[in-house]
Amino acid sequence: MEFFRYRNKLTPERGRLLISEPFLPDPNFERTVVLLCEHNEEGSFGFVLNKPSILKASEVMDELKNFEHEVFVGGPVQQDTLHFIHRSDKIENGEPILENIFWGGTFDQVLLLADTKQLQPGEIKFFLGYSGWGPGQLDEELEQDSWIVCDFVTEELLFETEAGLMWRKALANMGGRFSVYANYPVDPNLN
């Protein structure tokens, strides 16, 4: 949409958020918040944080039988794979994304912690699939104003904010004109 030129100056990088512009027509990313886990010349990938699936972790993997918490749709790529981010110091070998936030880790520890109820839903998020972009693809989408890059990322936003409120909250946290975008209706004709 030509009237919606906001050109935020931040560039994508690991640990930043991609917030979909208010009228992005792609149903995979409508009103989504994506945590970027990697961005380099080979491409980018991350997880949609606010798109819950209809499944619980125990339904996705038998080994997680005692973990009755929701699983999120991480993106449209390889939705038959299970990924996770966490903020638990009990899970080793995670890839640091931000301070105290990790992608992946030793899955046997996750299973043990979940089985013994030492892992709480506010410490881990599971995703089916992921969001991925080939070389230069995300940069093109940024040029088309499909995404707003945000570096105001908190553990509270990632792990404690209700999925249905996360998109608005992420924009509101940025302040200024982004606070206004947070209140745009889903259908601009309803305005």
Q: Key features?
A:
single chain, 191 residues, alpha+beta, VC0467-like, ten-stranded mixed sheet, 6 helices, disordered N terminus
Topology diagram in text:
Blueprint: E1 17-20, E2 33-40, E3 43-48, E4 52-56, H1 57-60, E5 70-73, E6 77-86, E7 95-98, E8 101-103, H2 107-115, E9 124-133, H3 137-143, E10 147-150, H4 155-160, H5 163-174, H6 176-181
Parallel strand pairs: 5-9
Antiparallel strand pairs: 1-2, 1-10, 2-3, 3-9, 4-5, 6-8, 6-9, 7-8
Q: Can you tell me the CATH topology?
A: VC0467-like
Instruction: Provide the β-strand percentage band.
Output: 25-35%
Shape, please?
globular
Q: What is the average per-residue confidence, as pLDDT, rounded to a whole number?
A: 91
CATH superfamily: VC0467-like
SS summary, helix count: 6
Question: What's the CATH class, please?
Answer: Alpha Beta
Radius of gyration: 17 Å
Cα separation of the termini: 16 Å
The number of E-state strands comes to: 10
Give, in order, the helices and strands: EEEEHEEEEHEHEHHH
In words, what does this structure look like?
This protein has 191 residues and is α+β, with helices and mostly antiparallel strands. The protein has helices at 57-60, 107-115, 137-143, 155-160, 163-174, 176-181; strands at 17-20, 33-40, 43-48, 52-56, 70-73, 77-86, 95-98, 101-103, 124-133, 147-150. The chain is built from six helices and ten strands, in the order E-E-E-E-H-E-E-E-E-H-E-H-E-H-H-H. The chain is globular, with a radius of gyration of 17 Å. The protein has a single domain (17-24, 31-184), classed as VC0467-like (3-Layer(aba) Sandwich). Strands 1, 2, 3, 4, 5, 6, 7, 8, 9 and 10 form a ten-stranded mixed β-sheet that branches. A hairpin with a 2-residue loop joins strand 2 and strand 3.
